[in-house]
């Protein structure tokens, strides 16, 4: 089983498939998070903006960093990776209806905010270069101002290690 689906069951996967909104996705995420024992960690970093400059490159780094932190550090990580495809399709739909907005704000306000305010997430690890991402800056500022979540800035070497693996898989 993939580390990204470690705490999932078939019902959770079906609920994500059926989700029609960011709020419904957040409900699935919170259900999964509540199954994780101990301190729950998350990772934040560039996906759609910043980072490597490409979504596939950023996703590869993001996934690898989660895997490294989980396997090597033993952190109980809630991975957002399973939500990515659904997020992308909901963001595309939202942006068609809201062309004046550059960023898909509902992903932050309606998906991440409920997760961060749930009281279940203890630490958010920020991938080096997180500042280049609008979403990561929002998550950082929101967590610092509105929660007791610990902020951890990951070293550049961890991203470099993930990028080396990315270049070897191309």
Brief overview:
With 170 residues, the protein is of the alpha/beta class.
Structural overview:
The protein has helices at 10-18, 22-33, 55-73, 84-97, 105-116, 134-146, 156-168; strands at 40-44, 76-77, 121-126, 150-153. Strand 3, helix 6 and strand 4 form a beta-alpha-beta unit. The longest helix has 19 residues, at 55-73. The chain has a single domain (3-168), classed as Rossmann fold. The mean pLDDT is 93. It contains seven helices and four strands. With 170 residues, the chain is of the alpha/beta class. The chain starts with 9 loop residues before the first helix and ends with a helix. Strands 2-1-3-4 form a four-stranded parallel sheet.
List keywords for this structure.
single chain; Rossmann fold; four-stranded parallel sheet; 7 helices
The count of strands amounts to 4
From the structure provided, what is the oligomeric state, counting identical versus distinct chains? Answer: single chain
Spatial strand sequence of the major β-sheet: 2-1-3-4
Low-confidence stretches: none
Q: Give the end-to-end Cα distance, rounded to a whole number of Å.
A: 24 Å
- Mean pLDDT, all residues: 93
Q: What is the CATH architecture assignment?
A: 3-Layer(aba) Sandwich
CATH level-1 class: Alpha Beta
**Radius of gyration over all CA atoms, rounded:** 15 Å
The total count of helices amounts to 7
- How much beta, percentage-wise? 5-15%
């Amino acid at each position: 089983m993939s580390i990204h689906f470690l705490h999932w069951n078939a019902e959770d996967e079906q609920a994500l498939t059926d989700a029609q909104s960011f709020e419904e996705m957040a409900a699935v995420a919170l259900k999964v998070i509540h199954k994780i024992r101990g301190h729950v960690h998350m990772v934040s970093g560039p996906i759609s903006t910043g980072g490597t400059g490409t979504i596939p490159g950023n996703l590869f780094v993001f996934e690898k960093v989660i895997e490294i932190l989980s396997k090597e550090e033993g952190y109980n990580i809630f991975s957002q990776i399973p939500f990515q495809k659904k997020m992308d399709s909901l963001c595309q739909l939202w942006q068609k209806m809201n062309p004046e907005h550059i960023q898909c704000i509902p992903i932050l306000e309606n998906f991440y905010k409920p997760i961060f305010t749930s009281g279940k997430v203890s630490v958010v690890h920020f991938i080096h270069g997180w500042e280049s991402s609008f979403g990561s800056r929002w998550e950082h500022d929101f967590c610092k101002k509105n929660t007791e979540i610990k902020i951890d800035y990951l070293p550049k070497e961890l991203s470099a290690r993930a990028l080396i693996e990315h270049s070897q898989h191309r």
